[in-house]
Design a protein that fits this description.
Pfam families: 3HCDH, 3HCDH_N. InterPro entries: 3-OHacyl-CoA_DH, 3-OHacyl-CoA_DH_NAD-bd, 3HC_DH_C, 6-PGluconate_DH-like_C_sf, 6PGD_dom2, NAD(P)-bd_dom_sf. This is 3-hydroxyacyl-CoA dehydrogenase. One of its GO terms (molecular function) is oxidoreductase activity, acting on the CH-OH group of donors, NAD or NADP as acceptor. There is one protein chain. By secondary structure, the protein is of the alpha/beta class. It folds into 2 domains: about 1-175, Rossmann fold; about 185-335, N-(1-d-carboxylethyl)-l-norvaline Dehydrogenase, domain 2 (Orthogonal Bundle), CATH 1.10.1040. Helix content is about 50%, strand content about 10%. An 8-stranded mixed beta sheet has the order 3-2-1-4-5-6-7-8, sandwiched between helices. It is globular. The termini are far apart. The relative contact order is 0.10. Bound molecules: acetoacetyl-coenzyme A (CAA). Acetoacetyl-coenzyme A (CAA) binds near residues 46, 49, 142, 219 and 322.
């Protein structure tokens, strides 16, 4: 398949890499030459890692399927376009208007937005019936989940096509049948983030992350994950979702954003990353699992009750999208919250 990925940042280059591994030809576009170069270097680094681990054979062959471009007109013959630019509604809207004027009206256009409404974004394209959400998780090459989101105008055949495309790259698609803010995984994750931020009144960053890592056995602490996915990204998302009635406010996030402490990518966020991944130690004092997870569990129940995804899908989505050992409903049963 000929695929265009718009934006070579953390998500864009990772998505391009995954599709290239599975034999697709990729146009990787970024407006900024430096970002494109950085994205390509990250792809090479990642492919070499995968080769070391015996997961792929030929780095050069895969890499040669990726064509870096800095003129959007070059994507004209793409069969699928995936947008992965920063989480700013106006920016995404203008990209879709431009893309839609270049590709055929039969081209499938997808957004990798983690939270913005698909149906609102679809208003910018000529053919909204062929517009959908394909939401990957960071890092796309390692995380098995992709949320496939149906906008109000997405044709059912297009939604099913999205599910098939995800299966062809050996990822697990989770069908998100209603276009709700934050979809499934982030709706739940935002509740974990807001609970963690609220708990900062009584506990330190390390104490909260110690609970996440050593008791709940998450692969990363909650604040570590905020740094990893980007303080800037999370702050921008929090503003966009707030405008649409979903409150994910965290004063500390705003403070870090304003100081330019964007997390892993700049070496500082909640943690200091200048010497690599933070070493989170197990602390004596920590909040209870209920304090961190209760709101997230209620959110998961809401998703099922509103027919967004089934209980099994939501449970699996939290395991695969966040790398948790247990799904949100497994925790709910253990904590007798449900
Ligand atoms: N490509 C190839 N290899 C990679 C890689 C990449 N992009 N990223 C990491 N690796 C490698 C590491 O280099 C390391 O290799 P070595 O064993 O040779 O050192 C190996 O993978 C394991 O990495 P780590 O030892 O650093 O740590 P880990 O075992 O914890 O695994 C992880 C890393 C897969 C990222 C894991 O920590 C994890 O699952 N974290 C949670 C991530 C998560 O929740 N993602 C979703 C966030 S929400 C989101 O993305 C949505 C949104 O919209 C914001």
């Amino acid at each position: 398949m000929k695929i265009a990925v718009i934006g070579a940042g953390v998500m864009g280059h990772g998505i391009a890499e995954v599709f290239a591994i599975y034999g697709n030809s990729i146009y990787l576009y970024d407006k900024y030459p430096e970002a494109l170069k950085k994205g390509l270097n990250s792809i090479l680094w990642s492919l070499q890692k995968l080769k070391e681990k015996g997961k792929i054979e030929d780095v050069d062959k895969i890499y040669s399927r990726i064509f870096p471009i800095n003129d959007l007109q070059d994507i004209e013959d793409s069969e699928l376009v995936i947008e992965a630019v920063p989480e700013n509604f106006d920016l995404k809207s203008s990209i879709f208007k431009e893309v839609s004027g270049i590709v055929s009206k039969d081209t499938l256009i997808a957004t990798n937005t983690s939270s913005l409404p698909i149906s609102e974004l679809a208003k910018n394209v000529v053919n909204p019936s062929r517009f959908l959400g394909l939401h990957f998780f960071n890092p796309p090459v390692l995380m098995k989940l992709v949320e496939v989101i149906k906008g109000n105008e997405t044709d059912t055949s297009v939604f099913n096509e999205g599910i098939e495309i995800v299966k062809r790259i050996e990822k697990i698609p989770i069908p998100v049948r209603k276009d709700v803010i934050g979809f499934v995984v982030n709706r739940i994750l935002f509740r974990v983030f807001t609970s963690a931020c609220r708990l900062l009144n009584k506990y330190t960053v390390e104490e909260i992350d110690s609970l996440a890592k050593y008791v709940l056995e998450f692969p990363m602490g909650v604040f570590e994950l905020l740094d990893y996915t980007g303080i800037d990204t999370n702050y921008l998302i929090s503003n966009e979702v707030k405008k649409r009635g979903f409150d994910f406010t965290c004063n500390k996030l705003k403070e870090l954003y304003e100081k330019g402490f964007y997390g892993t990518k700049v070496g500082k966020g909640f943690y200091d990353w200048s010497k690599g991944r933070p070493n989170i130690t197990k602390t004596e004092k920590m909040p209870s699992p209920e304090q961190l997870l209760k709101d997230a569990i209620n959110e998961a129940i809401w998703l099922v009750e509103n027919g967004v995804s089934t209980e099994d899908e939501v449970n699996l989505a939290t395991k695969l999208g966040l790398g948790w050992k247990k799904g949100i409903f497994d925790y709910a049963r253990e904590l007798s919250i449900k």
